[in-house]
Amino acid sequence: MVHGDVTFHNAPSTPPPVPRQLLGAPVHFTDRVAELAELNEALVEHRRDGTRMFAVLSGPGGVGKTALALHWAHTTRDRFTDGQLYVDLAGFSGSEPVQPEDALGLFLRSLGVPSREVPVEITEQAALYRSLTADKKLLVLLDNAYSAAQVRPLSPSSPSSAVLVTSRNRLTGLVAEGARLVDVGPLGNVSAVRLLAKVVGKRRVDDDPERAAALVGMCGGLPIAVRVAAARLASRPKWSVQKVVTELSDERNRLSMLSAPELSVQTTFDLSYRALRPTAAALYRRLALHPGREFGASVAVSVLEKDATHALLEELVDGNLVESVGETRYRFHDLLRLHARNKANSEDDADERACAVRRMVEWYLSGAMAADLVVTPHRRRQIYRFLTPPEGVPEFPDRESALAWLEEERQNLISCGRVAEEHGWWELAWHLSDALWPLLLHHKHYRDRLEIDRRGVDAARRWRNRFAEADMLKRLGMVCTTVGRLEEAEEHLRASVAVAEEIGDQQGVADAEGALARLHVAGGRLAEAVELFERLVGTHRELGAWRSVGLTLIDLGRALTGLGRVDEALRALDEATARFRDLDPPDPYNRARVMVAQAAAHLRADDLPLVDRTAHGALEALKALGSKQGAAESHQLLAESAERQGNAEWAAEHWQQALRLYTEIGSSKADDIAQRLRADDPQPPAADG
């Protein structure tokens, strides 16, 4: 029996400490002005709207997402008076990602819930978490998330809170629910050099700025790579920047050289790679063998023989292993391409790699051939039999779309030709050179054309196809004529005539002789050119090659104009107009070329109103056809006509337009026009000092 009162004495309860779980602010954090501004904007926007801020920092491994998140979190932590929660969700650690219930348990305990009172079931955990955070101002940083499902239960419900997630995946499910996606890419060159200087010291970087720029360029602006390279330099004070540049110059060893204890580019990429499904991993490896820097979705999936879908490519994009650079264009980060190539070399045999490359190269050839048929349907072609019929090849409703595709894929097509040569696929290499003819005809690209035609000649000879050799020798001679290499041009054109005669190709002989006659014009031998053109008109008539008759009549009209025989020139050009008018399918480009030649003849006759009318018509037609060469010639004729009429303003405008177009196509005429404009606009004399 207890007599009297019973009194219980409890120690005063102590409230749990405010959680301050952020890792330390990164010491060498550099720039990221745009990304920080976007996060600040998101915070202000959500505060204004009375909603919780939710942002996902997404980018490839090693790009600096965590550093950016921590830097921003530390600069804004005073706004979140109830603390900061942090967890590494280990989404790409090589082991199992942290389960949401484990992370929730950590957060609940951090918010003062005794361990014994933390619910077992995740639904109860999440409900308690929402209740505890409903009125708090919390910053929650969820690092290295693998999926949206891993993140959702960890998001507090308070509109005064902010959630910041980092992930190598894009977590589009969260974006669909209102999260702001902030893409984190490599550092720019200036910022990467600044990061290098922070680690190794400003003096060593300033002593050799060019090598420092080269070093961060080899790192692709990836902060983890820059930091590893910088650590090598910082730990070896006697080393020059040049030494590390030399070490990294061998691409085969670059990834292994960019490794340090607990900081390895190779390991970082390996972990992302292991997270891929087998078919996506195969696509990743084989896409690294793509001949050019950028690629489209259809050619990307052509590298797999089966199970290839655009969804696989998007899986690589979502995993930040491939970067989307436009609505339909993709590319690798330089170091990721090296990583993927290394995986291809180690996991695919030589035949598998060659097959993947051939499928991509043939896909490009198929697209180029389709464009060629639309732009230049009349010319003679060789047949090519594809090993595997390409799928998803673009279709072109008109000349403009075909030329636009050829221009967009120009560098890839040139690279495909080089790759075909490296593999000894000579027939394929020649066809890649041949199929670029419409692009080179209309957009010129003379420097590219010299390389393309030289490789085409070599491929034809190794293929042992004499027709292909004669045709490409003619094209090489033509471009040499255009760029002023007249002796070399004559050598190639006479060789083309000889080969065509040897195989009995009368049309080939006539075409090469036509190019030889144009060489005579370029060399000022107009009388010889006229004689040869007149003979060739007869030859083409005998062969029934009516389009060739029209082309030769254009050349004849130009040469006769040069000799001052304007009436004869105009008669030849009138017949050319009739020939092109009767063609089926039509040839609008060469009909417009006839108009340019007619305008030149009218200028020689000093019939200036007719020059203006004809040249304006040609200009509009050639601009619509995308011919910069033809448009430049039209502007030049209009400029000369304006000068004769005393209209200096109009003349200057047309000269400037001609100069711009000739410069864009790399024509030697640009220098002549630039000199003329300088002579017409002398600089004022310097003032007396």
Please describe the structure with a list of short key phrases separated by commas or semicolons:
689 residues; mainly alpha; Rossmann fold; Arc Repressor Mutant, subunit A; five-stranded parallel β-sheet; three-stranded antiparallel β-sheet; 10 strands; 6% strand; elongated; disordered C terminus
Short structural description:
The protein has 689 residues and is mostly helical. Helix content is 63%, strand content 6%. The protein is built from 34 helices and ten strands.
Write the layout of secondary structure elements.
Elements: H1 33-49, E1 53-58, H2 65-76, E2 84-88, H3 100-110, H4 122-133, E3 139-143, H5 148-151, E4 162-167, H6 172-176, E5 180-183, H7 189-200, H8 202-207, H9 209-218, H10 223-234, H11 241-248, H12 251-257, E6 259-260, E7 263-264, H13 265-274, H14 278-287, E8 294-296, H15 297-301, H16 310-318, E9 323-324, E10 329-331, H17 334-347, H18 350-375, H19 399-408, H20 410-422, H21 426-434, H22 437-443, H23 446-463, H24 466-482, H25 486-502, H26 506-522, H27 526-543, H28 546-562, H29 566-581, H30 588-604, H31 608-625, H32 628-644, H33 648-665, H34 669-680
Parallel strand pairs: 1-4, 1-5, 2-3, 3-4
Antiparallel strand pairs: 6-7, 8-10, 9-10
Overall description:
The longest helix has 26 residues, at 350-375. The protein is mainly α and 689 residues long. The chain is built from 34 helices and 10 strands. Helix 30 (588-604) packs antiparallel against helix 31, helix 30 (588-604) packs parallel to helix 32 and helix 33 (648-665) packs antiparallel against helix 34 (669-680). It is elongated and about 110 Å long. The strands form 3 sheets. A 5-stranded parallel β-sheet has the order 2-3-4-1-5, with helices on both faces. Strands 8-10-9 form a 3-stranded antiparallel β-sheet. The model is unreliable at 683-689 (pLDDT under 50). Among the domains are: 33-183, P-loop containing nucleotide triphosphate hydrolases (Rossmann fold), CATH 3.40.50.300; 189-268, no CATH class; 276-348, Orthogonal Bundle (Arc Repressor Mutant, subunit A).
